[in-house]
Write a structure and sequence with these properties.
Elements (H helix, E strand, L loop, with lengths): L2 E8 L3 H12 L5 E4 L11 E2 L2 E2 L10 H9 L4 E3 L5 E4 L8 E4 L8 E3 L3 H12 L3 E2 L6 E4 L4 E4 L4 E9 L3 H4 L3 E3 L4 H8 L9 E7 L3 H4 L2 E6 L5 E6 L8 E7 L8 H16 L8 E6 L28 E2 L4 E3 L12 H19 L1
Parallel strand pairs: 1-2, 1-12, 2-9, 6-15, 10-13, 12-20
Antiparallel strand pairs: 3-4, 5-8, 6-7, 10-11, 11-12, 14-17, 14-18, 15-16, 16-17, 19-20
Helix pairs in contact: 1-3, 1-8, 2-8
């Protein structure tokens, strides 16, 4: 027997979790969330106190800040005191500069972005089914039939929060409009080409040297690096983005190049790390695709086509790439989750 729900949410990343949270907030319990991974969060991933996925937010991210307040999750300022390093090229000396600390800085979440996930998960965990990858959707008139490798479920309405490029690889019967598929395939997946690295130390020795922990260097093994010390100031970390040119190297050789590079600017103390870890999002099958395309400009997100419903008003595409404000950010994911709930509410009212 195929079980039927009023709503099925595909994906338990931030967008899907927010839609589920809003449904429960408004007294709706006839829904389920299907997640292909063995964990929730999607491109939010905190491991050993290091945010290897989404990390920062700004004062302008009002919906996210409101959500954090509702969940009683707090934020703190990104550390930026001291000298930062700008590396123009491997042949030029570094340029040192100081941030204007009087200006609003980026914020981080106390407890890491995991705290945001935990807050949402604790609200909706009874509705989540893990390890179920949706491979096909069929319009059956009064409902949409979803197939995973293990399940067949029907939903009166379906919200698909997969990155559009991945969503385009699902089988749809009948086929979705050509224009929609074209837009989906042309929408860059935020985070899909990122390699993040986190390095933990016993002490924040860089601060003691008057350094902020920030390095910017487009021609360097690390294109960005920041102080990632936790709010309690008892876990000391440097975290950043690895230059994609190092992707073809083995993890061990990549680490050697990164540590050698950092030693130039932080000194030999950089070798006294107690944990080194990486996350190459291009190797995450539920984030990236086989034919990876690097993207160095700000991608265009929020195509108006994602505001439409398909399968005769039963299927909506959501997720941070569909948001017309702050697409690709945590804020975009929250806004898309709220927008999906509003669209569903209008459709049933």
């Amino acid at each position: 027997m195929v079980k039927k729900y009023k709503y099925i949410i595909v994906g338990a990343g931030l967008s899907g979790l927010v839609t589920a949270y809003k449904l429960l907030q408004n007294g709706e319990e006839d829904f389920i969330v299907l997640e292909s991974r063995s964990r929730v969060g999607g491109r939010i991933f905190t491991n050993n106190h290091i945010d290897l996925g989404a990390t920062w937010l700004q004062n302008s991210h009002t919906e996210l800040l409101q959500l954090l307040q509702e969940l009683n999750v707090h934020t703190f300022e990104q550390y930026s005191k001291g000298k930062s390093v700008l590396v123009y090229s491997s042949m030029s000396p570094a340029h040192y500069f100081e941030m204007d600390t009087s200006q609003p800085s980026s914020k981080r979440i106390v407890g890491g972005t995991k705290a945001l996930l935990d807050g949402l998960y604790n609200k909706v965990k009874e509705k989540i089914v893990l390890n179920e990858e949706v491979v096909a959707m069929h319009d059956q008139g009064d409902s949409v039939l979803l197939e995973t490798k293990n399940l067949k479920l029907k939903g009166e309405k379906v919200v698909c929060t997969l990155p559009p490029l991945l969503a385009s690889e699902v089988t749809y019967v009948p086929n979705l409009p050509d224009r929609l598929i074209e837009v989906m395939k042309g929408t860059h997946t935020w985070m899909s080409n990122a390699i993040k690295v986190g390095i933990q130390f016993k002490t924040p020795f860089w601060r003691e040297k008057g350094l902020s922990g920030t390095i910017i260097g487009q021609a360097s093994p690390l294109v960005e690096l920041y102080d990632h010390t936790n709010f309690a100031s008892d876990i000391f970390v440097l975290k950043g983005f690895v230059n994609e040119s190092l992707r073809e190297l083995s993890p061990e050789l990549r680490k050697i190049k990164i540590i050698n590079f950092l030693e130039k600017y932080f000194g030999k103390e950089i070798r006294n790390y107690i944990r080194y870890q990486e996350k190459d999002w291009s190797q995450d099958m539920f984030t990236s695709v086989a034919q990876l395309k690097s993207y160095y400009l700000s991608p265009q997100y929020g195509n108006p086509i994602f505001q439409k419903l398909f399968f005769e008003s039963k299927l909506l595409f959501s997720g941070t790439e569909t948001s017309d404000f702050f697409g690709g950010y945590l804020e975009g994911a929250v806004r898309s989750g709220i927008n999906a709930f509003k669209i569903l509410s209008n459709e049933i009212s």
